[in-house]
Amino acid sequence: MGKWHYGIVLDAGSSGTRVHVYRWLDNAIALKESGKHNLKSLPEIKTKADWVKKIHPGVSTFADRPEEIGPEHLAELLDFAREIVPDDAIKETPIFMLATAGMRLVPDVKQKLLLDHVCSYARENYDFALPDCDVHIQVIPGVTEGLYGWVATNYLLGSFDSPGNHDHGKDHHTYGFLDMGGASAQIAFAPNATESEKHANDLTLLRLRNIDGSTQEHRVFVTSWLEFGVREARRRYLSALQTALGADNVKEFPDPCLPAGLRTTLDGKPLEGAETEQYLLGTGKFDECLRGTYPLLDKDAPCEDQPCLLHGIHVPAIDFDVNHFVGISEYWHTTHEVFEMGHTDKAYDFNTYQHRVEEFCSQDWESIERGISEHKWGKKLDQEKAYEVCFKASWIINVLHDGIGVPRVGLEPMSTSGVNGTKEVLEHGKHKGYLDAFQAVNKIDSTEVSWTLGKMVLYAASQVPVESAEALPVGFGSNVAGVPSDFQYPSTGLLPNLEPLHGDSWEDALFEGGSSRRIPGIILFVLIVFLALFFLCGRTRRLKVYHKINNLFSCGRPGGSRLIQQRKRKASAPIKPSFFGQSTPSYERILEEGAQDIELAGSDSSRSSYDYVSDTDTAAFLPPKRTPSWGQGSPARLHFNQDNSSSATVGLGISAPPGISTIDRSGLVVRTESRDHLTPIALGPTTNGRRSRAPSPSRSHSHRSPSATPLHD
């Protein structure tokens, strides 16, 4: 490996996929260049603006056509990454595709199939390091996304490496993190000491490693609100609007969150042609829009674990004296891409921001269209964004101040509406460590704030070598000492007591001499083959194997032969496992050499219904005498002593056909089906409702009971 290590993260969001390429110095080189005073710092992750590429749509759109995601979506992103990573570093460069809220809404079966196609395509067409698909290609929960964002924010602000420069008081030096996408919203922060102790079980333990091998631990609260992103909130808002006005009888729906005079379809598309369908009509009343979006916070939901913020979800109390939040994604786009353009003040405060939103959203649509064509609000604002921006602004304000409880800095009205009421407090915010309660950002020190950076910080920190085998690993899990049972490692190669597979196939892992899994693997392989052959060989062969094994173990027992053992047992044989035949009790008799010497007793009421009797006792029931192939003498016969009304019947009430001996069976094994296997088919008038079974003078091995079909049939 050269001087630089590389890593690739694909952020598979709801609207598109963005690939990020990162690099960091080899740890040995980093130690030499860091100097004595910077050893207690994390690996320095680098990226460039042109090392990021985003394409549309999101991966979730391929849920019904997973075979197309490779050539139509991934190829463009992975080709882009391959052009950045040097050729000699490609095989050592890990690749991660982590999907977020859009994929969380896809059913599990489709989700798994889609991820499998992603992994197989990447492995077959690219040489990036991809040792384990379950770890490197996955849908991450919202709390994991929020934790990665918290790591990225504090990493870029420098609070990990220089905690003394970010002292917020009360022994607190980290920043809170807020993220809002299209489908979900996240919050992550380290509570103050009192709340951390009170809600210790609700916190996540995060462990990082500095370049000198030392570790640092943080305890963070993280939660996520699915359907609280701007797109899902808009959907819920329109659903409530239609319900309130009666969707079946109303054609025009007044929408205070749209500029006055604007008409759109119910899903926000431009209204074209004759107005024969239902549509939204903008009224441009921002105050009403704020009141209409407030119920979406679901503040009245039951809270089982106090305190709660939104939707009845528990969140420890936030101490805004020490908890200062940084917001990204929609918090930045909605507050800055439109409402700071054309103004000299860039800092956010409630009064200034809300005034600018009201000014924009109260205009009629024709005025806004002219302003867009003149780039009055910058080149990034187009008509599609102008449709949505008023709703997004109202939702952001409600979530921040009524939902999370961020103080309304600058609430007092100023004499001039364009003046920032807290300019002196917030001026040069980044140089003061972002000490305001909330600050929306897009980049810090020219690096975009993205949760993907947090993932790579964890991975790079985990690659720092340690001298002691007892060093605790890098990752996160439940807030307990040591390594919790749910601890998540940044990569498969970091799992304890696991060696990477040798080669690319399971044959190498089983048979290559250097693998520690060789012997257990071979044993497992042989066992699987044995079980497969066992179930494929058929019931008859399984039965023969069973009896051979039974005979083998019988020979060593007192009494010598198996026949003598039979005399000492009860008349009824033990129940055999269902693998060897019927699952119900079956009965057997063994005719062997010397059978004529066995003393057979008659039946009485205290004995089993199935008894052995002598030849003389059963002479009337015997067929013409035959010479058995296993020896001389008269073979023993089995008499079913059952109280039947006719001598033409045998045990269990089974009638024998006229003119045929009741019992006439030869062979080494004779089995009688139980009542459970007797079906009421082919019943004749003489069977008394029971099924007759014709005698079989020479029962072959291919004979099967209709209700005891072999497994392979």
Give a short summary of the structure.
The chain is of the alpha/beta class and 713 residues long. Among the domains are: 1-140, 2-Layer Sandwich (Nucleotidyltransferase, domain 5); 562-677, no CATH class. It has helices at residues 27-34, 69-84, 101-104, 108-125, 133-136, 142-157, 193-198, 230-245, 286-293, 330-336, 350-361, 365-373, 383-404, 423-426, 451-462, 506-511, 518-536, 539-554, 562-568, and strands spanning 4-12, 17-25, 52-55, 95-99, 137-139, 176-180, 184-189, 204-209, 215-226, 252-255, 263-264, 279-282, 325-329, 438-440, 443-444, 447-448, 475-478, 610-613, 637-640, 649-650, 654-655.
Count of helical segments?
19
Q: What average pLDDT do the residues reach?
A: 75
Proportion of strand residues: 5-15%
Q: Into which percent range does the helicity of residues fall?
A: 25-40%
CATH topology of the domain at 1-140: Nucleotidyltransferase, domain 5
CATH superfamily of the domain at 1-140: ATPase, nucleotide binding domain
Low-confidence stretches: 412-433, 497-518, 558-565, 567-713
Protein topology:
Blueprint: E1 4-12, E2 17-25, H1 27-34, E3 52-55, H2 69-84, E4 95-99, H3 101-104, H4 108-125, H5 133-136, E5 137-139, H6 142-157, E6 176-180, E7 184-189, H7 193-198, E8 204-209, E9 215-226, H8 230-245, E10 252-255, E11 263-264, E12 279-282, H9 286-293, E13 325-329, H10 330-336, H11 350-361, H12 365-373, H13 383-404, H14 423-426, E14 438-440, E15 443-444, E16 447-448, H15 451-462, E17 475-478, H16 506-511, H17 518-536, H18 539-554, H19 562-568, E18 610-613, E19 637-640, E20 649-650, E21 654-655
Parallel strand pairs: 1-4, 4-5, 6-13, 10-12, 13-14
Antiparallel strand pairs: 1-2, 2-3, 6-7, 7-9, 8-9, 8-17, 11-12, 15-16, 18-19, 20-21
Helix pairs in contact: 2-4, 6-15, 9-13, 10-13, 11-13
